Amino acid sequence: MTAFSHIRRPRPWFGTVAVGAGLVLSAVLGCWLTPAAAQAAIPTMTGYEIIARAESAIGTDYMWSQESWVPDAGGDGPDCSGLGLKCWEVPKTLYYQEESGDNATFTRYTSYSFYNLIGPWSELDSRSQLQMGDILVKNNGSTGHVTIYYSGDAWGSPIIYEAPGTGLQIRRISRYLSSEYKPIRRDSMSGAGIVLDNPTAKSTGGTGVGGNWTRSSSVAGYWGDDYQVHAATAGTAWARWTPRLPSSGLYEICMRWTAGSDRTSGATVTINTPSGSYKRYINQRINGSRWFSLGYYNFGAGYSPASGSVTLSATGADGYVIADAVMFTPS
Ligand SMILES: [Ca+2]
Fold first, then answer.
1. In a domain, 40, yes or no
2. CATH number, domain at 250?
3. What is the C-alpha to C-alpha distance for residues 284 and 19, in angstroms, rounded to an integer?
4. If you measure from the C-alpha of residue 38 to the centroid of ligand 1, how many angstroms do you get, rounded to a whole number?
5. Which residue in 246, 252, 224, 184 sits closest to 322, CA to CA?
6. Domain-ending residue, one of 135, 168, 186
7. Ligand 1 centre and the CA of 150: distance in Å?
8. Which of 127, 154, 224, 322 could form a disulfide with 197 if both were Cys (CB 3.0 to 4.6 A apart)?
9. What is the pLDDT of residues 193-217, one digit of tens each?
10. Are residues 173 and 205 in the same domain?
């Protein structure tokens, strides 16, 4: 075993500111993701979501045959294929340790599986087609390795995420990858941002609620499996989406809900940024089942509920408030 490759065995069996009000675009923009009605075999993901997951594993310890880690916490981490399958969220039934609280039973893909296209992914024609979140994999029958492509020189020394080997930690690094490495892409890739559903994978970000929200799927056109509903109230009632952003910069915020005449005509949305909070008001009687733009805001990298989140409030609303999903798209 070398630092960068190891034998795999088949085993039986995943700024500054907000630009401020002057530059905020309130127009309806960015509706390029498909609705939940067309559920794929595996969840739709974006390259940013995959990288956000990989980023959360940095500093954890390489653990042979493992695939779980607690984001940003150090400690036990995955091996190389475990990092790949968890960041790609394949298969669908795989859960993060922090999401399930116990061990899930699932088919575990290895470097052999990735290399030989045994799973929901396909080979790219050329490494020049690599995009954020793709995998570069090698397996020559005796050794194999799985890396996640981030950016840079696709042919020489790209920036990748990898679980290097025993005694080392999961890292982001620019290093040479030989022509043995094959470029592959996950199925069901769509869009460019990070979508946080209700609830969502905590390794991409997180959601939290206060109040008495109930889950529902009675009105079609929601994102994911369902949405959450809160009746109008004078009390505390909020839903918060906090992404784990791979890089700082300008992001467009889009929110999604299912519309109806019994919804609120003016729910308050607060966008929390490093330079302050900005309030927007949304009419959930219209513009349902689409991505509705709330404008562009500067965020820092990483995970911060206080300065990098979006909060929807049902306090003082004049109808039901719907929390379905929020998307952060780099601009
Ligand atoms: Ca949803």
1. no
2. 2.60.120.260
3. 25
4. 14
5. 224
6. 186
7. 28
8. 224
9. 898 888 776 667 778 889 999 999 9
10. no
